[in-house]
Amino acid sequence: MSASQNGSGLTKGSQSETSSSLTAASKNGSSPTKGSETSSSLIVTASQNDSSLLTGSKGTSSLRAASVKGSSLKRPSKRSWTPDPLDLVNEKTDEQFVAGYLQHSTKDPSPWVTAWTHPTTGVKYDICLKQPANLEEDELNACFRLIEETSRKDYENSAQKWHPKDKLKEMRSAELRYILVKEEETGEIHAFTSLMPTYEEGQPVIYCYEIHLKPHLQGTGLAALLISFLTTVAANLPPVIKVMLTCFLSNARGLAFYKKMGFEADGISPVPRILRFGKVFNPDYVILSKVIRSPSNGAGISDTDTSSMNGAGTSDTDASQ
Ligand SMILES: CC(C)(COP(=O)(O)OP(=O)(O)OC[C@H]1O[C@@H](n2cnc3c(N)ncnc32)[C@H](O)[C@@H]1OP(=O)(O)O)[C@@H](O)C(=O)NCCC(=O)NCCS
């Protein structure tokens, strides 16, 4: 049974097996430089993996956006009595989410913090977590402008192209959580990441939708801190086995950063292939992941309070659906 028939908010039953590759394609973010050594090694790794689910990226945003819209949380009636663990997590308030999944990591050295100081300028920043429903319109727009500032060119140069309306729609997906980094004095957002507990090809993951830092915050250790929050959530959420994200292959700095953070090309990452009439499809993005726990012992590895998750041990890959 396809992964898309399981689980959470985005991968919904009506989509085919290719949906996750498609949806993943719509989660790109990037930076400008082209094809570094890092990126080629990632490509090689990716191409060594089986990727029969590969598909073109055309129409990805709309598919992703459509699945986000709302009905995606509906379960087949047969299982309606079994709560899906990630749905339950996605229903938590922001306070519950922080308390349950960011506060007491047993494995990660970076616990949740709400303040951060720039190591060289000494400027102070506040950190907070919000789901889109709790974001001010100004905050959402500031995040959008930051994506535009750091990555618009990469979208424009990709097969996916830059579609501001689709991007904004995706950014409003209810199950996302934003971690905002605001300059204390001005309240301006200078960096953010967004994440979602979801399923990709049947794998329960924390998907990193975006991570963007204004240039003066790059190279300061802040990006590593933000990524560590995502691994903390994953470590505290037993069904989740990986942190996953999508990166343009042209984003050499991003690829190098993720490699340093322990990410590798995932088995579902697309590989080049020959289409009909000899046309060659060369993916311009890679799906990266960092394994947090093995699927088999998923429920047992964290000693955090799983009771708060009401059924966290339930497997997403319940093929009985
Ligand atoms: C991609 C991105 C998030 C990576 O963040 P980054 O800060 O540039 O990451 P870097 O690895 O370059 O910076 C880490 C560097 O910070 C410095 N650093 C780390 N911890 C530090 C600390 N505590 N104090 C001072 N400096 C520190 C180090 O120089 C480190 O490099 P090193 O590990 O080689 O020594 C960022 O460049 C960005 O926002 N890019 C634009 C948007 C984008 O492309 N997003 C990704 C979409 S997929």
UniProtKB/TrEMBL annotation:
Residues 29-41, 51-63 have a biased composition (Low complexity). GO terms for molecular function: histone H2A acetyltransferase activity; histone H4 acetyltransferase activity; protein N-terminal-serine acetyltransferase activity. It is found in: Cytoplasm; Nucleus. InterPro entries: Acyl_CoA_acyltransferase, GNAT_dom, NAA40. Its EC number is 2.3.1.257. Belongs to the acetyltransferase family. NAA40 subfamily. It catalyses: N-terminal L-seryl-[histone H2A] + acetyl-CoA = N-terminal N(alpha)-acetyl-L-seryl-[histone H2A] + CoA + H(+); N-terminal L-seryl-[histone H4] + acetyl-CoA = N-terminal N(alpha)-acetyl-L-seryl-[histone H4] + CoA + H(+). Residues 1-88, 299-321 are annotated as: Disordered. This is N-alpha-acetyltransferase 40. Residues 1-28 have a biased composition (Polar residues). Keywords: Acyltransferase, Cytoplasm, Nucleus, Transferase. Residues 142-282 form the N-acetyltransferase domain. It holds the Pfam family Acetyltransf_1. GO terms for cellular component: cytoplasm; nucleus. Coiled coil: none annotated.
